Amino acid sequence: MELRQLEHFVAAAEELHFTRAAQRVNIVQSGLSSSIGALERELGAKLFVRSTRAVRLTQEGEVLLTQARRILSAADAARSAVAGVAGGMGGRLTVGIMQCFRRGLTEALAAFHAEHPRVELRLVQAPSADLLDRVAAGALDLAFACARTAPAGVHLTPLDDRPMVFACHSGHRLAGRAAVSLTETADEDFVDYPPGWGSRTVVDAVLADHGLRRRLACEVGDTDTLLDLVAHGLGVAVLPPSLDTRHRDELRLIPLAPPVPTFPTGIVTPAGGSSTAARILLDTVLARQPAPVAR
């Protein structure tokens, strides 16, 4: 069993599409299939069920995915450690990012790259729930996510916890209000992220805690599309305060009256410790955080 085979397997397991997986690891599809086939023969187990319409992991594949991620993460850490001793930090740093995270991250990544150009940065966008799972499984070195507490297997460095805002079209009946209460939105159509996304989890919890219901008109896993849908009047939304809403003249953002959901952000790292590169990036981000917003 070779590391390259495990890299091919993890790519196929995460993409669930052999063509995309082959492109991700820069080989032809036949080479990827051959590599995974050799791995299956060595293990004596089928790792994927493939049909003309879909690819899915077998139970054996699910078990291997967890172990393969840990092995590859350990290999990357070993490379980084040796490279650091040999003169200048190198290796790969895999960073998870939720779409709503904006607080100094791009500036920190640019500064980190300028200081450590031999470190290859790989950015992965995913819902916060997935990011937490991937850090715990060793698939990510660190992640920027929506989280109030740290689940098992990860350490959380809190960054912020700011009030979310109500968003609607400029012609909406509530567009001129100074503040909007969630109790006033029972008859509204909502646009939101799918379950598992950080802001969706926060809003669902607040509504449930106060016995409130809402009607979802549309779920979308892309922030720009969500903002465009609200700006064009498809529905209203409750959004994190840090989204870039410039160039959307038809969109109105209004403070919420109690109960107000807040959007907690933080940096998530493995509970067992982080690589040198991950610790440096974490410190770089923390140094670029704006001052806390007065409540």
Keywords:
Arc Repressor Mutant, subunit A; 295 residues; alpha/beta; D-Maltodextrin-Binding Protein, domain 2; 4-stranded mixed beta sheet; 40% helix
Write a brief caption for the model.
This protein is of the alpha/beta class.
Description of the molecule:
- The chain is of the alpha/beta class.
- It folds into 3 domains: 1-88, Arc Repressor Mutant, subunit A; 89-161 and 263-289, D-Maltodextrin-Binding Protein, domain 2 (3-Layer(aba) Sandwich), CATH 3.40.190; 165-260, D-Maltodextrin-Binding Protein, domain 2 (3-Layer(aba) Sandwich).
- It is 40% helix and 24% strand.
- It has 9 helices and 13 strands.
- It has helices at residues 3-15, 18-24, 29-43, 59-87, 105-115, 128-137, 198-209, 223-231, 276-287; strands at residues 48-50, 55-57, 91-97, 119-125, 142-146, 154-163, 165-169, 180-181, 189-192, 215-219, 237-239, 251-257, 262-270.
- The chain is globular.
- The N and C termini lie far apart (55 Å).
- The mean pLDDT is 88.
Assigned CATH superfamily of the largest domain: Periplasmic binding protein-like II
**How many structural domains are formed by the residues?**
3
According to CATH, what is the topology of the largest domain? D-Maltodextrin-Binding Protein, domain 2
Give the strand tally.
13
Strand order of the largest sheet: 4-3-5-13-6
Mean pLDDT: 88
Cα-based radius of gyration, to the nearest Å? 22 Å
Oligomer: single chain
Q: Which second-level CATH architecture of the largest domain applies?
A: 3-Layer(aba) Sandwich
Structural class: alpha/beta
Based on Cα principal axes, name the global outline. Answer: globular
